[in-house]
Amino acid sequence: MSFKHINVALFVPDEGCPHRCSFCNQKTISGSVKKLSEKDVCEAVETALKGKFESKDGEIAFFGGSFTAIERTYMVSLLSAARPYVEKGCFKGIRISTRPDCIDGEVLRLLKEYGVTSIELGCQSMSDKVLALNERGHSSRDIINSAKLIKGFGFELGVQMMTGLFGDTDEQALETAQKLIALNPDTARIYPTIVLENTKLASLFKKGEYKPQSLKEAVSLCSKLLMLFYKADIPVIRLGLHSGGNVEEGYIAGAYHPAFRELCESAIYYEKVICALNEKKIQSGEIEIAVGSKYVSQLVGQGKSNIKALAQKGYKVKIIQKENLGRYQILI
């Protein structure tokens, strides 16, 4: 019997953050307002362990706030509740998310002691101008220094970036990705900015001072970013905000879609097909496209969008599945 690996995600909203960023409403993003307790940690983990999932390769993850900025006794209490499950081999480790300016040797030693194995930095941008405009409260230098410290202590490093921030451009976002790749992270997350109620960004949007990315614009940019990380052999473990929680409820504007990654993957495949057709100088007619069986849906696109777009260009498509073709590989 095959098992699906499981991670336990625990949200610590608005705990410890020394700044209120322009885009941030953690209570909306996490769908949680209750302060997480040791009991909550144990109950969530025990519930996960009772399911028909394989957990030993999964992680217990604390997200939503600036974990290393919360009050030390409280931070240790949460880690103390999670650590026994790692020590017993139920999970491979503990993952936390935090700010680049809340990392130093003292807290890294403490995290190591309590079984933390992965640290994700909410970098968002490598442009100091964009960071300042969005009231992040840290610089790109803080990101570089923290990443080096984390890697030096032997933790797995994750980086998170955003697109469409106030004052940002596609060019700057691509540059951010290149600079983050240079930090040699183990994983990455990419989040298009969305406008949520009760944020500074919402006020700027309502006053006409901020124009959010459209879904089409965000897909175009994020598909390019996804390929940059892919070519650097860095897994993008999240692309777009997850559906659920209260995101839909607090949403005002911006590039949010529950299947955002699928849209980006489909855009990549469409571009691959067009490039291959141009190289072969096939201008129209019946074509066969070979693709790996795992990636047929990405090639076809949501609602057969890629097939329809090719039809508009004069191509009648037949898809052939070939097991030897990997991700983003096609043959015409």
| Total tally of structural domains | 2
CATH class of the largest domain: Alpha Beta
The CATH topology of the largest domain corresponds to: TIM Barrel
Give the helix level as a range of percent: 40-55%
Structural class: alpha/beta
Overall pLDDT score: 91
Overall number of strands? 14
Unreliable residue stretches: none
User: Biggest sheet: strands side by side, in what order?
Assistant: 2-4-5-6-7-8-10
End-to-end gap: 37 Å
Largest sheet: 7 strands, parallel
Percent range for β-strand residues: 15-25%
What's the SSE pattern?
Answer: EEHHEEHEHEHHEHEEHHEHEHEHHEE
From the spread of the alpha carbons, the general shape counts as: globular
CATH homologous group name of the largest domain:
Aldolase class I
DSSP helix count? Answer: 13
The second-level CATH architecture of the largest domain is Alpha-Beta Barrel
Radius of gyration: 21 Å
Concise structural overview:
The protein has about 325 residues and is α/β, with parallel strands linked by helices.
Walk me through the structure.
The chain has 332 residues and is an alpha/beta fold. It has 2 domains: 4-257, Alpha-Beta Barrel (TIM Barrel); 265-331, Hypothetical Protein Ychn, Chain: A (3-Layer(aba) Sandwich), CATH 3.40.1260. It has helices at 26-30, 38-50, 72-87, 105-113, 128-133, 140-152, 170-181, 200-206, 215-231, 247-250, 260-280, 296-300, 305-312; strands spanning 4-5, 8-11, 53-54, 59-63, 93-98, 116-124, 156-163, 187-192, 194-196, 236-239, 251-254, 285-291, 315-321, 330-331. Strand 4, helix 3 (72-87) and strand 5 (93-98) form a beta-alpha-beta unit. Helix 2 (38-50) packs parallel to helix 3, helix 7 (170-181) runs parallel beside helix 9 (215-231) and helix 9 (215-231) packs across helix 11. The chain is globular.
